[in-house]
């Protein structure tokens, strides 16, 4: 039997390569299909586009202000945004009252060419990947539109659709509920981050529907930790109402680091003590306490559980009620 000719060998290799390409395309389509859900972009599509020139001042153009003071008020946030887009890292938080136009602004930023221009300066030689998720406003949204899994699946879908080469064949059968772990692995992968960088826009973070296992703090921690672990390869622009929990968690400072360090030291290994104290501190912050208040309270807490129960019932509950009443006034 004569040996296979060079031309035949080339044809066989070509067929093998074609089959590999087809298999790869099937895998990619299957992964994207598992991540997608019907109303993934419903909220985004429902947001009206900003009127002409409404937010142009965000990029230092056409302030259209009547006084110099108005122009200065526009220039400061504009400069902060541009600096963050072009050279920043971590989380850029946009907060405002109900109906103040946060979602319209987020959609404007997400789509605007100047956003992409400034982010390209930050990306440098790396491939820039931009993805976004807009939480559904109020109750009409589906469970996925208001849960933690929903935005993570949506962000993963947008990223992998833009960069199908990031889809490993080993995750062909990963369950959708593991989106959190998959997202963390993606943004923390050193090989990925050497060639890509990511900017995520998440609107309406306060619309996240809390569960017993994951509250809003858990969401903030996931985003912040993912950004920090990426070594400067992930930027996050998020918006929310002026929610005390989100504001104090996103704007982390030395006071919070002191609490994280001091709480387990004071607990002397009693996990129930830690759980009770952390829960009470969160309630204080949710009801309007200053960021430094929990740290001061920590210094006055008794070590024994019986005494702690009494202290929480008398002191923490009274303080939380006072802060809540003050916030309502």
UniProtKB/TrEMBL annotation:
Domain of life: Eukaryota
Name this protein carries in UniProt: Nephrocystin 3-like N-terminal domain-containing protein
InterPro entries: NPHP3-like_N, P-loop_NTPase
Domain Nephrocystin 3-like N-terminal residues, every copy: 80-241
Alphabetical keyword list: Repeat
Organism of provenance: Podospora didyma
A Pfam family reported for this protein in Swiss-Prot or TrEMBL: NPHP3_N
Keyword Secreted tagged: no
Alphabetized SUPFAM superfamilies for the sequence: P-loop containing nucleoside triphosphate hydrolases
